[in-house]
């Protein structure tokens, strides 16, 4: 996996591991490698781009904040928006 612009020649390679997918009853499950195990019985789950994001329930905000630290210093979390246009009300 690469971070940044896919056309950038100086891409940063992020090492990836693989996990096995299998059926458990009528559900799909993923067998996580030992180093990716979670504490507890449940995780938060969400669609993220073309994948799935899993976060520990007990410290999901800490995990998210730590992930945000991985962005380049120039990355802006808030966009600079122009002022909203003043428009006439729509007649009813």
UniProtKB/TrEMBL annotation:
<comment type="similarity">
    <text>Belongs to the VapB family.</text>
</comment>
<dbReference type="InterPro" id="IPR037914">
    <property type="entry name" value="SpoVT-AbrB_sf"/>
</dbReference>
<keyword id="KW-0238">DNA-binding</keyword>
<dbReference type="Pfam" id="PF04014">
    <property type="entry name" value="MazE_antitoxin"/>
</dbReference>
<dbReference type="InterPro" id="IPR007159">
    <property type="entry name" value="SpoVT-AbrB_dom"/>
</dbReference>
<dbReference type="GO" id="GO:0003677">
    <property type="term" value="F:DNA binding"/>
</dbReference>
<dbReference type="InterPro" id="IPR047976">
    <property type="entry name" value="Anti_VapB2-like"/>
</dbReference>
<feature type="domain" description="SpoVT-AbrB">
    <location>
        <begin position="19"/>
        <end position="59"/>
    </location>
</feature>
<dbReference type="InterPro" id="IPR051734">
    <property type="entry name" value="VapB_TA_antitoxins"/>
</dbReference>
<protein>
    <submittedName>
        <fullName>Virulence associated protein B</fullName>
    </submittedName>
</protein>
């Amino acid at each position: 996996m690469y971070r940044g612009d896919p056309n950038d020649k100086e891409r940063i390679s992020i090492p990836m591991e693989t996990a096995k997918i299998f059926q458990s009853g009528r559900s799909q499950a993923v067998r996580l490698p030992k180093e990716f195990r979670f504490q507890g019985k449940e995780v938060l789950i969400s669609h993220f781009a073309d994948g799935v994001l899993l976060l520990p329930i007990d410290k999901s905000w800490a995990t998210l904040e730590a992930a945000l630290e991985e962005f380049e210093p120039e990355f802006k979390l808030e966009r600079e928006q122009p002022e909203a246009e003043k428009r006439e009300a729509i007649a009813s």
